[in-house]
């Protein structure tokens, strides 16, 4: 790994994690889901970051089940007893995102409705008991957060907007977006053409000069962000200290999450033959 600045020590793949389709670091937990539009029961599960960290300290990779799917339907009894993943709840629909705000979880659900996607967001308490629906976010998916402000998009046409959770204020924007991230004081937008802009006064400005092609982005720290580029078959981090790309990994990740610059979790997009495979095991870099 050519990355002395980030001081990456280890790169691990745990085969029993291939069930995970999406994941988020929220409230000192790594939340995991195996969401599928065709399933009746979709689960939201979690593992404490402290427990994850302790497991990463164990060097042996053989028969490591700590992040295995915690249901007996999939694994044998021994594997079930070994997993540290706990089920929080199940739902008919796919968990699209989870946010923690004011001692409550905001969870967005997504499902297939005929030929289109539909979505709903609800508040949940710390025991994951469902509370009220957030009507302003009906048929919106969460694509980013900046402190009290959520950024959303229509899942069918990508029309973007924002929702101020503190003041319960909703605003529509005039651009289309797939992802919004915060890097220090900057808010960056990945638009539907896979160009990355800075968001200033509700307008997209200062396009970053980056290679063309399908991209996935995620915040790394206060001065840099991760960018996975499928045409390059690599993941970089872009630093605003020198406005340059630096190699992070020789893989493309279509899901990424970072915990305090200490733990990176990624879902690889391409298999060893260079073909798209959405069902690979998680890769953890720390």
What this model shows, in words?
It is a single chain. By secondary structure, the chain is mainly beta. It has one domain: Neuraminidase. The chain has 2 helices and 23 strands. A hairpin with a 5-residue loop joins strand 8 (116-124) and strand 9 (130-133). The longest helix has 8 residues, at 49-56. The relative contact order is 0.14. The model has no long low-confidence stretch (mean pLDDT 92).
Quick overview:
By secondary structure, this protein is mainly beta. The protein has 2 helices and 23 strands.
User: What count of structural domains?
Assistant: 1
**Outline:** globular
CATH class: Mainly Beta
- Note the beta-strand portion: over 45%
Structural class: mainly beta
What's the helix count? 2
Helix content: under 10%
Calculate the mean pLDDT score and round it: 92
Q: What's the end-to-end separation, in Å?
A: 12 Å
Low-pLDDT windows of residues: none
Strand order in the largest sheet:
10-11-12-13-14-15-16
Main beta-sheet annotation: 7 strands, antiparallel
Level-2 CATH architecture: 6 Propeller
Output the CATH homologous superfamily. Answer: Tricorn protease N-terminal domain
- Rg, rounded, reads 19 Å
What is CATH's topology name? Neuraminidase
């Amino acid at each position: 790994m050519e990355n002395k600045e980030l001081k990456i020590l280890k790169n691990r793949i745990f085969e029993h994690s291939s069930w995970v389709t999406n994941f988020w670091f929220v409230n000192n937990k790594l939340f995991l889901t195996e969401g599928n539009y065709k399933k009746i029961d979709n689960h939201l599960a979690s593992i404490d970051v402290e427990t994850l960290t302790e497991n990463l300290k164990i060097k042996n990779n053989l028969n490591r089940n700590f992040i295995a799917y915690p249901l007996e339907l999939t694994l044998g009894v021994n594997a079930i007893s070994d997993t540290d993943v706990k089920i929080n709840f199940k739902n008919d629909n796919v968990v699209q995102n989870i946010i923690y705000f004011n001692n409550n979880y905001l969870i967005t659900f997504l499902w297939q409705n005929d030929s289109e996607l539909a979505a709903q967001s609800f508040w949940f308490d710390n025991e994951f008991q469902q509370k009220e629906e957030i009507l302003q976010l009906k048929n919106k998916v969460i694509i980013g957060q900046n402190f009290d402000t959520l950024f959303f998009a229509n899942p069918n046409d990508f029309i973007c907007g924002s929702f101020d959770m503190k003041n319960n204020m909703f605003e529509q924007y005039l651009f289309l977006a797939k992802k919004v991230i915060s890097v220090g004081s900057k808010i960056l937008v990945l638009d539907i053409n896979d160009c990355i802009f800075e968001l200033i006064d509700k307008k997209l400005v200062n396009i970053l000069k980056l290679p063309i092609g399908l991209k996935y982005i995620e915040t790394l720290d206060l001065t840099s962000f991760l960018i996975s580029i499928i045409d390059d078959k690599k993941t970089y981090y872009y630093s605003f200290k020198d406005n340059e790309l630096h190699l992070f990994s020789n893989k493309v990740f279509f899901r990424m999450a970072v915990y305090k610059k200490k733990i990176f979790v990624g879902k690889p997009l391409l298999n060893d033959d260079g073909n798209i495979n959405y069902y690979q095991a998680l890769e953890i870099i720390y």
